[in-house]
Amino acid sequence: MFELINTLLIGITAGSIYSLMAISIVLVWRSTRVVNFAAGGLALASSFVGAAILEKTGSFWIALPLAMVAGAIFSAFIEYFFLRPLLKRSGDQGAEIFLPIIATLGLLGIIKTILNYIYGDRIGALPPPLPDKGFVVSGESIALSPMRLLILGIVLLLMISLTLIFQRTNLGLSLRASSFAPEISRLAGIRVDFIRTVGWAISGAAGATAGILQTTNGSGSVSPESFEFSLLLVFGFVAAVIGGIESLVGAVLGGLTLGIILAIILMYVGGSLVFIAAFLILILVLLLRPQGIIGAKGGRRA
Amino acid sequence: MGVVHKRHVTNKHRFIGFVLIGLLVYILSNTVDEWKSFQGATIAVYVVAIASIILLTGYSGQISLGHGALLAIGAYTAALTQIYLHLPVWICFVAAVLVTSLFGALLGSAAARLSGPYLAGTTLALAVGLPSIANQFSFLGGEQGISFDAGWPPLSFGEAFTQYKWFFWITSLAALIMMWWIQNLLRSRYGRTWRAVKTNEVAAELAGIHLARSKVLAFTVSAGIAGMAGALLAATINNVSPSAFPLALSFSLATGAVLSGVNTLGGVMIGAVALVAIPEIASLVADRWSGSESVASLLPDFIVSALLILTVFLAPKGPIEKFWSRHVK
Amino acid sequence: MLRIDNLTVDHGAIRALHGVSFNVEKGQLAAVIGANGAGKTTLLRTLSGLNKASEGQAHWNDHNILHSKPEKLVRHGITHVCEGKSVIPELTVSENLELGSLWRRNRSESAQSKREVLELFPRLGERLSQRADSLSGGERQMLALGRSIMSKPELLLLDEPSLGLAPLVIEQIFQAIRDLTTAKGLTVILVEQNAMGALKIADVGIVLNLGSIAASGSAAALKDDPAVRAAYLGF
């Protein structure tokens, strides 16, 4: 019984981090119709910034927000200097639709090598700021620790903030309108290009948070070759697709679902099968319910 | 799209062209050293692998970021066939192609309804997930992997005929045969059907083409070719393990395809040579410039990624088409 | 006033507008009629910044409006209601309306505009929190028009507002357009296939054929012109 609860707790924690990454991917997808594979690299870079700030100030509570800001800036930078010219060119030459996707792959490679060059063998340390020893319940230590609660709390806070922004503010309305119907939005006077950059900035902040939380929840240190970040990228993407890549709520549900299922597999089957399990889950969802958990029918074709 | 001047090239011309290339390879194999033979074999592997991507993405319009996984399937199949069934090397190659094709058919039927980012992400998940299966099942050899022995050159070839030269010969011959077959296939009605579906699905369907069948076929054939590339890779490095098929391999192949010009088979050598040459050039440059080890090891990846981005920006249809249209304008 | 000089627009290799020139006085309702493919939509899209002109000039109140982004032109008072898809289905009626006034700084003025729109189209008021995709065709057109008013337009470009609507609804819409033009002193370019209905409420008319102006003049004169009647009004 305890084992099951523990597994669920582990799964929900991991899943909530995947949800953040999924949100990052969905935000970019909805505003630009591009899957930003470089998001993994951006999360990595932001995490390094977080580690550096932690080293300087010794406070996780300063490092996290600043890393989020860094993530937002990096992401906006890429949208402005990289993606806009790219989209303009793809539009002109009627080239393949997948080319922007491949370009973000190239960008990921460049970010990784630059980080590798700057940091080399050094690693950034991001130890958990709160104790991650589980609480003791009826004499047994369960997987719920102050750190875990913190992670869940941060993710919850971000979700609520994002929802409020999107649903109740003018900025949110502009964001939604621009992603649903850019042309109509332009004709209504909305600066769609600027709004798109804002969307990317928010996406970058979400990705940065995911990166930092993933590190503190995992090995506690970030290095350029961290497998954790490839993992984050892939699982974040899978979570986004499972949830129906069009909706933020879907991203959250997708992430949690994925996290729980993977935790169960990890516990009861074996660690090496986790990836292929993610793949199978993805295929299954796409086959049985192509629009994802939340998605509306008829919107699968990019 | 500029008008491309098409010379009147017949099949006979092409056959002669292939024979000439074969001759060139033969001459090369006799003049280069061990290391270059190994590189030559690697180029041959890449040629086949990139061709499989060009078929799938350039012709059939389906993106795959996971061809590394397909190569892995081919490689493992070849090795397992040899270890457990003790069959000759050539049969192992065939087995690799068949098994990977089957997998491709399965994958293709799942993928037929996907497009763009969904397909990209699914294949990405496959590329990350598949190789680690080897760690779960002991008969797959775990991290160390299992070995594949492509044999030794026949004694009649003489003492000086090294094993690496043998690999070079096998892979090149296989690559040539495969390329001949592929380019015939792409010119046939199958290739035309794939192109038609890629260009305009609605029109193709109205013209009576069965969309799903066409897409699944493309995946199947592409997978088979990738399986062959995997088997050839196994022959070249003598061993198959998960570390031979990292995510980076799938990315490299995708890059190679873009560098070659994803739309046509003609430029496939460019991508393959680039993938092998870039690490070489990069280490030369790094030695000259900074002598720092980290730069040396990082430069190849950096150049490859940068090239990818540049190509996408400047020559999205591939350097060859760009050259042609410039030339003709 | 709107001044258009020698406007030429190409879609790739196809020339959609050939050196079109005309003027519309402030406060006038100009009906632009013509067959499909005559270039009417292209004309509006070029004026609102969605399409690029290859040659020629266009000035609104002596301000050059070509080669600007649509969102910038809105701030100069040019609002374009596209044919058929001017409403965002996933947003509510209220959100669709507010979309038009997001760029405006003055909150109370925007609220005033919203009240005006709801007075003009009470049906929208009943459905404020419903998603726009639950509206009927006529209601969507009202919503589109309403949103355009929220943008504080001076020059209003309307593309086939009657498309797909029942005759009674068309009358309502046309009447609303006429009332708005007069009440707010708007300058309106009304592109329509429903030539008769458009000419009835217009002050001036322009007939486009294959990218060039075939006829122009006061709406009343055009309505009675036998050549125009035969070609475009069906009798």
TrEMBL record, chain A:
Name this polypeptide is given: Unannotated protein
Family: Belongs to the binding-protein-dependent transport system permease family. LivHM subfamily.
GO cellular component: plasma membrane
Record's bilayer topology term: Multi-pass membrane protein
GO molecular function, one term: transmembrane transporter activity
Keyword Membrane: yes
GO terms, biological process: amino acid transport
Location of the protein in the cell: Cell membrane
Pfam families, A to Z: BPD_transp_2 (PF02653)
Entry keyword set: Amino-acid transport, Cell membrane, Membrane, Transmembrane, Transmembrane helix, Transport
Transmembrane segments: 6-27, 34-54, 60-83, 95-119, 147-166, 231-254, 260-288
UniProtKB/TrEMBL annotation, chain B:
Organism: freshwater metagenome
Subcellular location: Cell membrane
Record protein name field: Unannotated protein
InterPro entries hit by this protein: ABC_transp_permease, LivM-like
Membrane topology listed for this record: Multi-pass membrane protein
GO cellular component, one term: plasma membrane
Alphabetically ordered keywords of this record: Cell membrane, Membrane, Transmembrane, Transmembrane helix
Keyword hit for Transmembrane: yes
Keyword Transmembrane: yes
GO MF: branched-chain amino acid transmembrane transporter activity
Record field: transmembrane: 15-32, 38-56, 63-81, 87-107, 114-134, 166-186, 216-237, 298-316
Automatic annotation (TrEMBL), chain C:
Family, as annotated: Belongs to the ABC transporter superfamily.
Name the record gives this protein: Unannotated protein
Record flagged with keyword Nucleotide-binding: yes
Pfam families for this protein: ABC_tran (PF00005)
Keywords: Amino-acid transport, ATP-binding, Nucleotide-binding, Transport
GO molecular function, one term: branched-chain amino acid transmembrane transporter activity
SUPFAM superfamilies associated with the record: P-loop containing nucleoside triphosphate hydrolases (SSF52540)
InterPro entries per the UniProt record, alphabetical: AAA+_ATPase, ABC_transporter-like_ATP-bd, ABC_transporter-like_CS, BCAA_Transport_ATP-bd_LivF, P-loop_NTPase
Keyword ATP-binding part of the UniProt annotation: yes
Sequence ranges assigned to domain ABC transporter in this UniProt record: 2-235
One of the protein's GO biological processes: L-amino acid transport
Listed SMART domains: AAA
